[in-house]
């Protein structure tokens, strides 16, 4: 009998100890959880308040911009509005809101900032705001005022305790059941995760939804900034007749390096502003449907749009110069003559080199093809001709009215000019092209590329060249 | 006697429940009889390469054993039928050592940083996908950086709330695989097999209905890519 008691006492004591340990552990865990929830809460609410503040500033600055008497004054307002829009958008994107809301509000903030920046840029270049620009400004002002007042409303709701960004978990039947069912999941989406952060749902139903739908219904914004709506669906400059899939495959085999040793595993038709047939290729010696390379061929004209091959790389046997030459030869073999190598970079056994089209003595930077070349045997492992196909067309280039000597006067004397050439570059807004004199200049160790407009003599663009063991690229 | 065993068992179970433990980030060693997601991963790989002819059921059985043996023979590994670190590496699923060789001086630090972050997201979101799909996931992230509806920086896009499940569940903090580092580099250099997509999702998992309203561009492996 007594023996039995001892046998039970040991495990009994251990069980009590374990339970006590578990209790303390849970209690500590709860404390840490509460602290984390409060930290997250404070962070998000601060970001939300920041956003509301910046939006209020934007609407007031846009309003001032509408009544500003002088251009200089207006430039200042627009510059400030741009910075507030940037800050508002940074704060906003850290809030846990569903994709549909963050997309519409985020887009509004970006475009507002972008528009203000483009107004300021135009004014700096001497182009004042015209009537349609003023109308757009007035419209954005009304919208941001509406957004601002809706944010105040949400803020008031928050202050009354209407919702929390990160409510701490409470013990209830609901939370226990959810914990059991909500396991699983895994994997990842670019959309949104299934359950987490459901708490602010109540508030999303109300005001946020309103904000988002009213912004969704805004008309398309067209101005000369990089986020302007009309840039998203630009048509390619190179037009050609549609071809059949069989013809596309034939042309693909002619253009893709090493296509003779490959078999097509699958083809997908991809639409968009540059519609393609996407061929998936595997080495001929294998079977199964795994593929290691993709070749996109334009459905119009059959040009090679993109080619990407991923194979293991051996020891490098050549330098960047040799790779550059091989690239020129490859481009000529697929009918792209007059391409000259610009910047290049060596990384992990491959060279990535950008080639630009040269028309007469002008380097046309918008017509660009990028190649990825294996340094072990010189094979072309990648082609990206999208920029070239989108931009290339016969151009009627006017002779420069500002000559090199005149343009060079604008380059600061501290810079030692090493090379000059004529270059066509995209403008800051991404909508047009400018003929410039390109100056490769050195200041101490650092190398800069300076672009002076060849018809107005204005400084258009400054790039810094980064040189490292891997080659050069521009910033 | 039976009761005593029961009591000890109880204590043991309690202690096990109390002791917090962490799962290993590495792929576990697989042998005949192993089960689980890593077995499925190895099965997918081997079946894509034509070694494995059975179904992807997450169970290491006879067919799988034969597949592993012939894969090991082909790749100069000891044909023991055990999927250990070296076999995993040959399957392309081993965590790569930091950085990656090549040039890359200190000047290019920011680019190497970007590449590492991008590679880890790709690794967490598209492990086991075809190479094209991995580059496409990287391209979606970079397309977002230059899209007005999303933040303007790589970190802004990656860590945006609700954007990527791998950020919410911590999978992003595991080291990237060799293949995803290559994919991240190609995406950073401008290759975009997604056709300009800014969304991607796995249709076999629960996602919001709204996402299906986006115009779909193409499918690669298990993912749908959309504008």
Question: Can you offer a commentary on this structure?
Answer:
The complex is a heterodimer of chains A (475) and B (227). Chain A has 3 domains: 2-169 and 201-232, no CATH class; 245-391, no CATH class; 404-474, no CATH class. Helices cover 44% and strands 23% of the residues of chain A. Chain A has an 8-stranded mixed barrel. Chain A is built from 11 helices and 13 strands. In chain A, helix 1 runs antiparallel to helix 2 and helix 3 crosses helix 6 (201-216). Residues 180-199 of chain A have low confidence and may be disordered. By secondary structure, chain A is an alpha+beta fold. Chain A has helices at residues 2-67, 71-92, 99-124, 131-159, 173-181, 201-216, 229-232, 245-255, 320-333, 386-391, 404-408; strands at 262-270, 276-283, 293-298, 304-309, 339-347, 350-359, 362-374, 380-384, 416-426, 433-443, 446-453, 459-468, 471-474. Chain B has 227 residues and is mainly alpha-helical. Chain B folds into 2 domains: 37-90, Muramoyl-pentapeptide Carboxypeptidase, domain 1 (Orthogonal Bundle), CATH 1.10.101; 111-226, Orthogonal Bundle (Arc Repressor Mutant, subunit A), CATH 1.10.10. In chain B, 44% of the residues lie in helices and 5% in strands. Chain B is built from 9 helices and 3 strands, in the order αααααααααβββ. Chain B has helices spanning 2-18, 37-48, 62-74, 85-90, 109-126, 131-145, 154-158, 165-168, 178-188, and strands spanning 199-201, 216-220, 223-226. Chain B has a 3-stranded antiparallel beta sheet with strand order 1-3-2, with helices on one face. In chain B, helix 5 (109-126) crosses helix 9 and helix 6 (131-145) crosses helix 9 (178-188). The relative contact order of chain B is 0.11. Residues 14-25 and 94-110 of chain B have low confidence and may be disordered.
């Amino acid at each position: 009998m007594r023996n039995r008691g001892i046998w039970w006492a040991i495990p009994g004591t251990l069980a009590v100890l374990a339970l006590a340990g578990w209790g303390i552990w849970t209690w500590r865990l709860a404390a840490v959880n509460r602290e984390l929830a409060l930290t997250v809460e404070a962070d998000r609410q601060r970001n939300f308040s920041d956003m509301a503040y910046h939006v209020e500033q934007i609407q007031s600055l846009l309003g001032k911009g509408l009544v500003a008497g002088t251009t200089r004054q207006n430039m200042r307002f627009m510059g400030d509005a741009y910075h507030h829009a940037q800050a508002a958008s940074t704060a906003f994107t850290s809030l846990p809101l569903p994709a549909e809301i963050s997309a519409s509000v985020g887009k509004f903030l970006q475009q507002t900032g972008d528009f203000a920046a483009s107004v300021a840029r135009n004014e700096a270049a001497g182009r004042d705001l015209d009537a349609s620009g003023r109308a757009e400004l007035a419209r954005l002002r009304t919208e941001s005022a509406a957004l601002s007042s809706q944010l105040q409303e949400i803020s008031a709701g928050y202050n009354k305790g209407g919702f929390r960004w990160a409510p701490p978990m409470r013990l209830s039947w609901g939370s226990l059941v959810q914990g059991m069912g909500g396991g699983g999941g895994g994997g990842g989406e670019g959309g949104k995760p299934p359950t987490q952060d459901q708490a602010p749902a109540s508030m999303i139903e109300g005001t946020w939804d309103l904000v988002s739908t009213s912004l969704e219904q805004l008309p398309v914004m067209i101005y000369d900034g990089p986020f302007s709506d009309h840039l998203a669906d630009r048509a390619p400059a190179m037009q050609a007749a549609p071809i059949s899939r069989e013809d596309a495959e034939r042309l693909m085999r002619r253009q893709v390096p090493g296509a003779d040793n490959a078999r097509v595993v699958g083809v997908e038709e991809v639409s968009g502003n540059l519609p393609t047939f996407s061929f998936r290729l595997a080495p001929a010696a294998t079977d199964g449907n795994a593929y290691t390379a993709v070749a996109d061929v334009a459905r119009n004209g059959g040009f090679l749009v993109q080619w990407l091959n991923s194979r293991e790389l051996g020891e490098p046997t050549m330098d960047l110069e040799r790779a550059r030459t091989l690239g020129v030869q490859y481009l000529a073999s697929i009918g792209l003559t007059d391409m000259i190598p610009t910047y290049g970079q060596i990384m992990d056994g491959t060279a990535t080199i950008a080639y630009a089209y040269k028309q007469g003595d002008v380097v046309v930077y918008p017509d660009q093809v990028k190649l990825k070349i294996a340094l072990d045997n010189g094979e072309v492992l990648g082609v990206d001709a999208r920029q070239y196909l989108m931009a290339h067309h016969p151009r009627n280039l006017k002779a420069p009215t500002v000559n090199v000597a005149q343009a060079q006067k604008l380059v600061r004397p501290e810079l030692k000019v090493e090379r000059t050439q004529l270059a066509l570059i995209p403008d800051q807004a991404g909508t047009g092209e400018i003929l410039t004199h390109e100056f490769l200049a050195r200041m101490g160790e650092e190398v800069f590329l300076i672009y002076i407009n060849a018809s107005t003599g204005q400084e258009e663009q400054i790039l810094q060249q980064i040189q490292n063991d891997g080659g050069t690229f521009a910033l | 006697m039976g009761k005593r065993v029961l009591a000890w068992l109880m204590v043991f179970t309690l202690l096990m429940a109390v002791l917090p433990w962490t799962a290993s980030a590495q792929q576990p060693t697989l042998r005949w009889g192993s089960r689980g997601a890593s077995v499925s991963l190895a099965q997918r790989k081997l079946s894509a390469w034509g070694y494995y002819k059975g179904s992807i059921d997450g169970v290491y059985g006879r067919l799988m054993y034969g597949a592993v043996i012939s894969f090991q023979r082909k790749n100069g590994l000891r044909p023991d039928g055990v999927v250990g670190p070296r076999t995993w590496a040959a399957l392309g699923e081993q965590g790569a050592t930091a950085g990656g060789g090549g040039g890359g001086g200190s000047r290019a630090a920011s680019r190497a940083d970007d590449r590492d972050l991008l590679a880890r997201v790709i690794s967490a979101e598209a492990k086991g996908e075809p190479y094209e799909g991995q580059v496409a996931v990287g391209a979606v992230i970079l397309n977002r950086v230059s899209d007005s509806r999303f933040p303007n920086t790589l970190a802004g896009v990656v860590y945006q709330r609700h954007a990527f499940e791998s950020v919410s569940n911590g999978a992003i903090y595991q080291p990237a695989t060799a293949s995803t580092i290559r994919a991240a580099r190609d995406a950073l250099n401008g290759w975009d097999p997604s056709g300009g997509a800014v969304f991607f999702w796995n249709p076999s998992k629960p996602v919001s209905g709204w996402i299906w309203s986006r115009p779909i561009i193409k499918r690669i492996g298990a993912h749908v890519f959309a504008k």
